[in-house]
Write a structure and sequence with these properties.
Elements: E1 2-8, E2 16-18, E3 23-27, H1 34-46, H2 52-60, E4 75-86, E5 89-103, E6 110-122, E7 129-135, E8 138-142, H3 144-149, E9 181-185, H4 203-212, E10 215-218, H5 222-226, H6 245-255, H7 257-267, E11 274-283, E12 286-293, E13 298-299, H8 306-322, E14 333-337, H9 345-353, E15 363-367, H10 371-375, E16 384-388, E17 395-397, H11 401-407, H12 413-418
Parallel strand pairs: 3-15, 3-16, 10-14, 14-15
Antiparallel strand pairs: 1-2, 1-4, 4-5, 5-6, 6-7, 7-8, 8-9, 11-12, 12-13, 16-17
Helix pairs in contact: 1-2, 6-7, 7-8
Length: 423
């Protein structure tokens, strides 16, 4: 579970610290930085499996203007604190990444290179122990089994109190004869985390890597939701715009029919005549989805409203998160832009009420401008976060929950946001 995310010099964000809970809502006027914060989270997640340039392109559609235009510094910094449950142990990870975004004269892009990268772990025999150290391509990886076999945190192996204070092994006095660290080099265009092989020697570092790969961003597009095209390279997940939905549901139908049934039951809140999903796959590259009633009448996505399709996709994400153990060893982090678009908010209320606000079954981060959707968070004020525009940086404000509770007798939460009373 993500506990803290610090981002500095990414788009409009300078030294912003975001502390999400299980169930979160980002609000604020246009150009306040809500999408930039989601994009920064998405970018970091993508760096666990892509080059920096590819991660930037997939996160924001470009790689030439990631840093804040109002400052001369071209160093981007990101830091994550998270807790992952593994084999009945609570593992606390801290990951820090510093990227140099250097303008190139020929292309006009920013060349992205890893300047520093640190991953530390506490728990399970580790105490603020550096698992990975990358200084400009000079890499040291902890052999985790060797570390634990030699006595773990009591052995004379390097430990750090914070990633920024991680020492170079060459600076240590009297290092052990058989160091638990393996030295290597890496090209600077990608994180070392993305290049890790899934080996027993780096089991916990890979655990954190797999967690980052479960950070999903969604800004659904009705045309993409209607597409029957199979995107095998991204299977079995829905792409950020909604593409691959038919293929993902088809796989669920064949592999997890009980979960498909839960989705159908939830979608009946909007489509009460729905009886089942049916599919047609005339070729390996296409899957056609149909909603079918009890009389056998079939309705394709082409005849469904945009709101119905968005609701179906959101139901899928929430219910698969509830049943995450069927798919993954730990729960995902999902950020979803403006879920109320094209939807009657009344349909969303029971859907959101069924979600586990603790985050034990997945963390959700929504953005919204709708006062009626914002009203749904009046009992979950800990998850409310306000972003305000500013120069040179957006400002992230945590609204005063006690003050809001007193005002709720006078007006709903969405009205408070409209009147700018939240911060």
């Amino acid at each position: 579970m993500l506990k803290r995310f610090r981002i500095s010099n990414f788009k409009s964000l300078l030294n912003i610290e975001f502390r999400p809970v299980g169930f979160n809502l980002l609000i604020g006027p246009n150009n306040a930085g809500k999408t930039n914060l989601c994009s920064a989270l998405r970018f970091l997640g993508l760096t666990s499996m892509n080059t920096l340039e590819r991660a930037a392109y997939n996160a924001v559609g470009e790689s030439w203007s990631l840093s804040n235009v109002y400052v001369s510094d071209r160093t981007l910094e990101m830091e994550v604190d998270c807790v992952i449950s593994h084999q009945n142990e609570q593992l606390e990870f801290n990951y820090r990444l510093k990227i140099l975004a250097t303008p190139t004269l020929k292309s006009g892009k920013q060349s992205l290179q890893v300047a520093e990268e640190f991953l530390t772990l506490t728990g399970g025999g580790f105490s603020q122990t550096t698992l990975l150290e990358n200084r400009g391509g000079q890499v040291k990886l902890l052999h985790e089994g060797r570390f634990l076999s030699r006595g773990g945190p009591e052995a004379p192996y390097p430990k750090t109190t914070a990633p920024s204070e991680a020492p170079r092994l060459s600076q240590l006095h009297n290092p052990p004869a058989e160091s638990p660290y393996v030295e290597t080099t890496a090209p600077p265009d990608a994180t070392m985390l993305s290049r890790l092989y899934d080996l027993e020697t780096n089991q916990r570092a890979n655990l954190f890597k797999r967690y980052l790969q479960l950070w999903f961003y969604y800004n659904l597009n009705p045309q993409a939701l209607r597409s029957p095209e199979v995107l095998r390279e991204e299977s079995p997940v829905i792409r950020h715009d909604g593409a691959n939905l038919s293929h993902v549901l088809f796989r669920l139908h064949n592999e997890k029919p009980r979960i498909e049934k839960k989705i159908i039951d939830a979608v009946r809140a909007l489509e009460p005549k729905l009886d089942l999903f049916s599919y047609s796959s005339p070729d390996p590259q296409s899957v056609y989805l149909f909603l079918e009633d009890q009389d056998g009448n079939r309705f394709s996505p082409q005849s469904m409203s945009d709101g119905t399709l968005r609701f179906l996709a959101l139901v899928y994400l929430i219910i698969t998160a509830e049943n995450y153990k069927e798919f993954s060893p730990f729960a995902p982090l999902i950020f979803f832009e403006e879920p109320e678009n094209g939807l009657y908010v009344g349909y969303l209320k029971p859907l959101l009420e069924r979600m586990d606000a603790s985050g034990a079954h997945g963390q959700f981060i929504f953005t919204s401008h709708s006062p009626y959707f914002i009203d749904l968070f009046d009992t979950n004020l800990d998850g409310l976060h306000l972003l305000k525009p500013g120069k040179p940086s957006s400002v992230l404000v945590k609204p005063d929950a006690d003050k809001i509770r007193k005002l709720l007798d006078e007006m709903p939460l969405g009205e408070m946001h409209y009147r700018e009373l939240l911060g």
